[in-house]
Amino acid sequence: MASTHGNYSAYYARRTQSRTALFPHSLFPHAAVLDVGSNVGHITAYIAQHLAPRIITGVDIDQSLVDAAWRHRLTAWSLASPHTTPDYFPASLPHELGPLPIPPSDDKHAFPHNLAFRCADWTKEDIPEDKDGYDIVLAYVLSITKWIHLNQGDDGLVAFFRKIHTVLHKHGHLILEPQPWESYAKARRMSEHLRATYQTLQLRPSNFSTTLKDIGFEFVKTLGETGEGGFRRSIDLYVKR
Ligand SMILES: C[S@@+](CC[C@H](N)C(=O)[O-])C[C@H]1O[C@@H](n2cnc3c(N)ncnc32)[C@H](O)[C@@H]1O
User: Fold this and answer.
1) Ligand 1 pocket check for 32: Cβ under 6 Å
2) In a domain, 8, yes or no
3) Which residues in the chain show pLDDT less than 70?
4) Is residue 69 within 6 Å of ligand 1 at its C-beta?
5) CATH number at residue 147
6) Does residue 165 have its Cβ closer than 6 Å to ligand 1?
């Protein structure tokens, strides 16, 4: 699949730790979490393994990234100690000997049973977990807003924010990392469709908080900023009123 949805596989490993350090860790234990645009699953797996959500589902539009995310789940499991200490064994071990099988467990909320991935264009298709709703949506939307905005225009992005509002439980949280407007100029060059949509955009990332407020979110705070240069972004926390 061409990378016109931001579906680069090398994207994320670089940025996982600096970003997860900013998350409000106390929100995650026992929560049902959705990671939209989960890419190769590093952040999703980190949360499943370190922050004890009841269940976390990563959804991505690109099947090859979803396949890589399932493989990453197996690797993360293989590196954990028998008492589930993460990264206990060296990465060379599963690389040379193959991954460890995941045994069945009665505790479906323990890692890695609390972690699953799905392939879908989440702006247009529902996934089974949507039915029960979520306590937290990562709309990494971490670094996904630009791609939905450029592919589907202002209306598509607003519909995406509305869908997040719908699937969140009352007082559920949205963690949002919008890309800055300046980064759109380069991205639009990737296709004629993105270029044409770019010309129609009225909404700006600096106004997303107003749009989200109109939909029914309250801005809680900026959790911090990560990245260098063009990757410098703030991560914002919202709550569903
Ligand atoms: C730039 S990457 C960000 C990855 C990750 N969320 C992060 O912040 O590190 C954007 C991801 O969103 C996915 N994506 C884009 N549009 C999507 C959609 N409509 N539904 C699901 N995933 C989508 C892409 O395939 C890509 O993996």
Assistant:
1) no
2) no
3) 1-3, 6, 8-15, 82-84, 140-143, 229-231
4) no
5) 3.40.50.150
6) no
Q: pLDDT digits over 174-199, tens only?
A: 999 888 898 899 888 889 999 999 99
Degrees, nearest 5: CA angle 118-119-122: 95
Q: Is 174 in the pocket of ligand 1 (CB under 6 A)?
A: no
What domain count does the chain have?
A: 1
198 CA from centroid of ligand 1 (Å)? 18
Contacts of 137 (CB under 8 A, 6+ apart): 33, 34, 36, 164, 167, 168, 172, 173, 174, 175
Task: Tell me what pLDDT residue 9 has.
Answer: 62
Q: Whole-angstrom Cα distance, residue 220 to residue 63?
A: 34
Range of the domain at 59: 16-240
Strand partners, 240: 217
1, 4, 7: which to mutate for ligand 1, most atoms within 8 A of CB? Answer: 7
Question: Which protein residue has the closest C-alpha to ligand 1 atom 7?
Answer: 142
Q: For tokens 């609390």, what's the residue?
A: 114
The DSSP element (H or E) to which 137 belongs, if any, is strand 134-142
Condensed to tens digits (0 to 9), the pLDDT of residues 40-65 reads 999 999 999 999 999 999 999 999 99
In a domain, 3, yes or no: no
pTM: 0.89
